[in-house]
From TrEMBL:
Domain CN hydrolase: 1-246
EC identifiers of the protein: 3.5.1.3
Name of the protein this chain belongs to: omega-amidase
Keyword annotations of the record: Hydrolase
Domain of life: Eukaryota
Top-level taxonomy: Eukaryota, Metazoa, Chordata, Craniata, Vertebrata
Annotated CDD domains: nit
GO biological process, one term: asparagine metabolic process
Amino acid sequence: FRLALIQLHVSAVKSDNLQRACGLVREASAKGAKVVALPECFNSPYGTQYFKEYSEKIPGESTQKLSEVAKECSIYLIGGRSIPEEDGGKLYNTCTVFGPDGALLAKHRKVHLFDINVPGKIQFKESETLSPGNSFSMFDTPYCKVGLGICYDMRFAEMAQIYGQKGCQLLIYPGAFNLTTGPAHWELLQRGRAVDNQVYVATVSPARDEKASYVAWGHSTVVNPWGEVIAKAGAEETVVYTDIDLNKLAEIRQQIPILSQKRCDLYGVEMKK
């Protein structure tokens, strides 16, 4: 099946972001994409100072438009961090997934908050405004089961392992790495998660805006279960297309059967809730 990653140029005007995102979703559908993903922070600038201002409840304006365009195009639509979600007085970094009938299939709240300090380069603390999610998020398609993470979630190998154990063959991480962590770890982490679990891994970033307060790395990418980069964007706004070949995934798992060779008598990773 064809996967499309929309590397959107995000402005400060929510309505413009939504309109352009939906337009690119329609374009991707017209080119045969069955699963389409938007980046983290697709409808608002990324930064702790913006989260409260741009927050919405779910359902709300942004998710309603995503639902409508998913139904119109009859696709599976991963809404990036569709919005900073407000719920019960708390804010979450939330990704929504809509099916071909427009129904909400999954809602992933970012589990691991991005609190880092690289002296002289970048300091960021999502926990100043956001609360963490407390659950894994998977959804079924006619093609395969898909596991969801958001950006920093990708650094935690155990999360990807759980998804693999639960039968996911594609992991999608909307993310917004920056100019420090992006060149160092963006591709490395994707290839690691793909090889470790013999799955496809896709990441979808906002396009780079040098004038933004937080400059995203870009380079939305798809990695196959062999660890090969099979599609990759540059820094500009674009749509990345690739065909996900589940026969190739099955061949790789047969050739190197690590999943059946794990020593569960010696070690294990488990989902607690």
